[in-house]
Structures are given as structure tokens and as C-alpha cells.
Amino acid sequence: MDLTLTTREVDGRTIVSVGGEIDVYTAPKLRDQITELVADGRYHIVVDMEGVEFLDSTGLGVLVGGLKKVRAHDGSLELVCTQDRLLKIFRITGLAKVFAIHGSTESALADH
Description:
The chain has 112 residues and is of the alpha/beta class. The protein has four helices and five strands; from the N terminus they run ββαβαβαβα.
């Protein structure tokens, strides 16, 4: 399965909607997207993971790397995720404490 990425700007923040599987094969595509956004001066990113069907450690690494990139510019990388199996991964790894995880893009945008 391939990874789909679409980006849109809302109120000065960039929403990256991700679909498909984030694994060792597709994670570099997401990493490159985040790197490009940061290079373009977009430091407030919301990653919408509602369309994600699978996430492995490589994908988690890309998200953590993205968070480090935006934080270097006093930015933020927040997640939209309501799927229990993905939320469980964030809880087990301790990353639920690292990332702000929202139930919708609306709530992610409302927090700022």
C-alpha cells in the first residue's frame, strides 16, 4: 500500500493529511514532506493521521524527527488521531506525552 500526503494551509498552520501505511518503505516520503515544509518556513504543522492504516517504528521516528525540526524554530508538530490501535502505539512508546494528540483538525487548530 502506498502513502498519500496532502497539505493545506489554515490560519498560518500547515495540515498534512496522511493516508495509507507509514512503514520503512513509505516513511521517507513523510520525512521529506516535513523537511520541505520546515525549509519553506512552515514551523507549525498538524499531521492528520485519520487515514493511516498502519504505523511502525520507522513512522514514529519520522514524527519525532519532524518534531525536533520544528522545535528548533520554536514551532509545533501536533497530531490528529482517534484510532485506538494507533493511540495505543503512542501510549506504549511514551510518545503520547511528547505529542499533542487531538480528536479532530478543528480542535488542533482551536488550541492556538
